[in-house]
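hiii, so i know i said id send this last week but things got crazy w the move. better late than never?? heres the sequnce for the chain we talked about at the cafe, plus the structure i predicted for it. fair warning i was half asleep when i ran it
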Amino acid sequence: MSILVLGTVALDTVKTPFGEKKGMLGGSATHFSMAARLFTEVHLVAIIGGDFPKKYIDFLKRKGIILTSLIQDRKNRTFKWKGRYEGDLNTALTLNTELGVLSSFKPSIHKEQRKIKYIFLANVDPDLQRELLHKIYRPSLVGLDSMNYWINNKRKSLMRLLKEINIYVANDQEARQLSGEVNLLKAAKKIHSFGPDMVLIKKGEHGVIFYSDKFQFCLPGYPTDKVIDPTGAGDTFAGGFMGYLARVKKISASNIKNALVYGTIAASFNVEGFGVEKTSALMEKDMRRRTAEFKKFISF
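okay and structure toks below
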C-alpha cells in the first residue's frame, strides 16, 4: 500500500536556545515523509527551485521517497522559511518567508499515482489541495492539514474542501480559530459538523484529541526532556498516523489508537534534533522500542 502526500519541500533556517542551522531540508511534505516511510511507500508531490541542493534530492531518494512528482523550476528559488524559538519552544517566531516557486505551483501527478488510495494534503493553499484531490481516482482515506493563514485568508475554499475529506488535522490554535470555540472538544465537534468524519487536534507537548461519531480518544505527549527543535513535529505526527493507517488498511478503534501512538512517537523523535536529523535515521525497531516504553507510561 502507498500513500501520496502533497506539501512543501523547503530550505529552513532555524534558531533555538540550542543553536542555529541554516538552509536545512524542511517543509511539510518532507517531515511527513520521514515518518510515513517507516510504514508504507511514500509518493511526494511538491515543487523546488533551481537553488535546491542536489544532495537533498539524493537524500530523499536514499530514504525511499518516490519523487516522480517533485517538480523543479530551475528559473526560480525554493520556498524558504526562517524562524526562532524561545522560552518553552512551543511557538515559533517567523522571521522571514520566501514563497519562491510556491507562488506559481500547480501540482501534477503521473497516471498511476491517481490510483493511490491513501492521500495526505499537507499545509499548502486549499485550492491547490482540492486541485490535487480531484486528480485522484476514488481515494479510500484523505487527510488534510492547514494553518491559520489559510483559515483567515481562504476560509471559503477551506470550508468547501472540508466536505470532501475524511480526516482533518489541526493544532489547538487552528482548531479554535476555525471553529470559533475555546473548548477543544467543542471545537472538534464543530469542525466535525463542517464535513470531515474524523478530527485530530494536536496539542504539542500536551498530546492529542481524536474525535469521530464512533469513538473519541485523548492521548498525552511522549515525555522527553530533550527538545532541540520542534519544527515539523506536527507534520511528523501526521506522517506516523497516516502511514500506520495506510499499512493496516482499516479504520477501527484499535487501529486509530495505535496510529495516534505511532504519530506521537514519531513526533517525539523529531523534536530531539534539528530538522530531519533524528527522523531520517529512524528505523521501525526504534519506533517499536519507544512505543513499548510509552505504553507502559500511559497504562494504569
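btw The longest strand covers residues 41-49. thought thatd interest u
miss u guys!!
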